[in-house]
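Render this sequence as a predicted structure.
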Amino acid sequence: MSMDEFSVSGLRVVREAAACGSFSTAAENLGYTQSAVSRQIALMERAAGRALFERHARGVRPTAAGRVVLRHADVILAELEQARHDIRHLAARPAGRLRLGAFSTAMAALVPRAIAATAARDRQLRISLREGLSPRLITAVARGRLDLAVVTSPDTVPSGVEIEPLVDDPLLVAVASTHPLARATSATPDLLRDERWIAGSQEPSATLLGAWRDPVREPEIAFVARDWFAKLGLVAAGLGVTVVPGIAVPVLPPTIALLRIDHPAAVRRTVLAHRGDRETVESRGMFAEALRDRAAELSAEVRQRLRGGA
C-alpha cells in the first residue's frame, strides 16, 4: 500500500460513503458527481491495494481494510481541521504585548520564572521588562507607560491603578556562614541590636527595610552598598549583616546563612499593579497566575533553606 497516493479528498469521500452507505448519497452530500466519487474510491482502493467497500444492491459497506482506513481518516481529517482553526486564530490575533516593571529583588527569581512560564503558554506574547523602584513603577503604570508592575504594597494607590496581592514575603537576615547566629533559624530584634549592618543608604529604615525600629538605639551602619552582589559579598566576608526578602533566596550563595526575624512587622507584601485595561486582560491574568504559582514555589524554597540552616 502506497500511503503517498492517499489524498485528503479521497479520505473525505471514503468517510462520507461509509457514513451514508451509498456512493450516490455521498456524492450529493459532498457536492460531487457520482462518477467523481466512484473515481476517488477507485484511486483510494488502488493505493490501499485492496477493496475498501463491499458493493451490494442496497448500497456499500466498508471491508476490513476500509475500516482501517476510516480509523486513520478520522484522525487525519480532525488534525487538519484543527490546523485550519489554529491558523485562522493566528491570523485573527496579532502578537500581544505586555510591558512589565518589577523592583530589583523580584527580578532575582520570581519575575524571571513567571515570564518563562507565561512565554511557554503563549509564544506570541512579547514581554518587555523594566527594573525600578516601586513608587516609580506604580507611577509608570498610572501614566500608561507600563501595563503592570510587580511592586511592594504602596501606602497610597494612584487613581485608575488596581492592586492584586501576590505574596506576603518574609524578611530575612543574611549573615556569614561563620557568624554565631548562622546555625539558628530565627532571631528576635534584641539579638540583632548590636550587629553592624550593610545598608543601601545611611537611612536606618533602609537598613531594616521597615522590619522593625528601635526608638532608643539606631543601628550601626558599617557599609553602604546599593548593589545586592556587593551587599552579599560584604556579608559573606563577615563585615556585617543585611536584610533580604524571601523571594531573593534562590540566588543567594551557600556562604550566606539566613534567619527569620521574629517580629510581626518583618513581612513585606508584594503586589501586582495594573490599570485594568481590556487590551491586557488575558495576558495580565495569565502572567498573574504564573506569578502566584512561582511565589508558592519560592515560599517552599525559603522554608527548605531555613530548615537546612537548623
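Summary. The two ends are 69 Å apart (CA to CA). The longest helix spans residues 64-92.
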